[in-house]
Amino acid sequence: AVVSTQSGHYGRGLSWNLNGIRTLENFKELLLGFDVDVACFQETKVSRNQLGRVLITYHHLGTRTLTIINVYIPCGYENDEDPIRFNTKISFLKDLKRRVASELDKNNSVILLGDMNVKTSVLDSADALEKEKKHQSLVEWSQTKDKVIFREILDLGLVDAFRHLHPNQRNVYTCWNSGTRARVNNFGTRIDYILTSKDLRNLIVSFSTLTDCQGSDHCPIVLTLEPLSITPSPIIPNDCTLYFPEISGRQSSVLKHLHKVHSTVGGVETSSTKTPTSRPLLCLATKTLSKKRRLASTGSELKKLRQTTLLSRSVVPLTKATSTQSSIEVDQPPTEAESSVAGATSISSTVLQKPCSSETTSKNTKLGGARIDSKSVTSCPPCQGAGDPRPSLSSILVGLPKPPLCSEHGLKSHLKTVSKVGINHGRRFYCCPLPIGPSGEKSSRCNFFMWFDEYNRRRKK
Known about the structure:
Blueprint: E1 2-4, E2 10-17, H1 27-34, E3 38-42, E4 53-61, E5 64-72, H2 84-105, E6 109-115, H3 126-133, H4 139-142, H5 145-155, E7 158-160, H6 161-165, E8 192-197, E9 204-209, E10 221-227, E11 230-231, E12 259-265, E13 268-274, H7 287-295, H8 299-314, E14 328-330, H9 336-342, E15 362-367, E16 370-375, H10 381-384, H11 393-396, E17 414-417, E18 428-431, E19 449-451, H12 452-460
Parallel strand pairs: 2-3, 5-6
Antiparallel strand pairs: 1-3, 2-10, 4-5, 4-11, 6-8, 7-8, 9-10, 12-13, 14-16, 15-16, 17-18, 18-19
C-alpha cells in the first residue's frame, strides 16, 4: 500500500511491515501522527498473501520523475530443508534488480523501500554479532546468494539511507522474533530499508527507527529529505488494494461468506448457516462436531452441545464386572433434532461417585434435551476395598508433568512445539522461559533444552 498524506514541509517517507493491518487499532490516527508525505506498507494481509509483492508508483519531483518501489521480498534461507521459498526469493531479487536498473536507465530518481528480508552486514544481525563475539566464521553467512544479489542491487547506484548517516552503529534493528520475545532484549535484525538513488543522497536529513511503535513484529522506519514538493501519482495502480473486492465493501467480514437457511428436522424448524456453493467451506469445528454445531444455532443449544461433548470426552469405557454395572442410558429415543443438540443418544461410561449406602437410588435428569436415567447398584465396589477395576479420578485427569528447571536460572522451563518443517516437526521440547537475548546477560535465555519425550522417560525410571 502507498498512501500520500501531504505533510507539506520536509519530504518524509515511511515504510512499515504491519503483519496484518486489522490488528492495529486507531490506524488512521496513528498514520496521521507520523506526519509523512508517503507511507508504504507491507504484509497488510487484507487478502491475496503471496510469496513476494511489489508496488511501483510514479511522482513528480520538480522537473524529474520519482519512482517509488515498495517491496516485500519473500522470506527464505539457503540451508532450509524446503528450498522452494529460497529459490522464489532469489528469482524475486533478480527480477527486482532488472527493474531497478531499468528505472535508473530512464534517469529517474528512485526510492526502493520495504521489508527486504536480507541482512547485508554483520551489524544488522544480533545473531551474527553473537557469532562474531564467539570468534565463529562468518564467511559462509555473508556469501549467501540473497546477500550477494542484494549487494548487486545497491551497486547499481542506490544508497542505504540509514547507513549513510550511521555507518557503524550497532544494535539498531527493525524486526524481532515474536515467538522468542526477542524484542524485550533487542535481539533482532535490520531487514527493513529505505534505499535512494545517488542523486537524492545529499538531500538526506535524518533517518528514524521507531522501535517504540508496537503492533507488529516489525517497527516503522522514516526517512526525512530536504524540503521537496512531491506530487501524488495521478494514476492509482490497478494492483492497489483499493480495488480489491475484499475491502471494497462487498466482503466486509467473514460472516459475509455465510447465509442462513431454514429447514425442518423431525417436525422441528431449525436455523443453520451454510456457505454458498461458489465459496469454500469454512471449518467451524472438528469433523465429528461440525454438523451438530451447524444445527445448534442458538447460544443455549451450543452450551448444551459443549456440555455433552465434555462429558463424552471425560468418560472411560467400563470393563465387565460381575458385581456392578454403571451406565448412562437414554430413557426414550430422542428425536433427530434432540440428538443433534445432545451430541449422543447413548453413552456407556464409568460414573465416578462417592461411596454409596446399600440403598438403591435412581434419578432422572436432562442432558442436552435428552432424558437420562442414572442408576446405582446396591453393591458398590469402592466400599468393598480392593479389586475395583475402574480407574481413579487422578488417573483420568492426568495433566502435564511438572516442568524441569532451566540449568542457569533455576526457573520453570516452558513447553514449546517445533513448527519448522522437518523430521522434528510437531515434536515438543522444554526451554528456558526468558526471552532470547545477548549471551552473558542475566535477562537472556540460557541454553537449556530438553525433549519432552526424553524428560518423560527419565521421570519414569
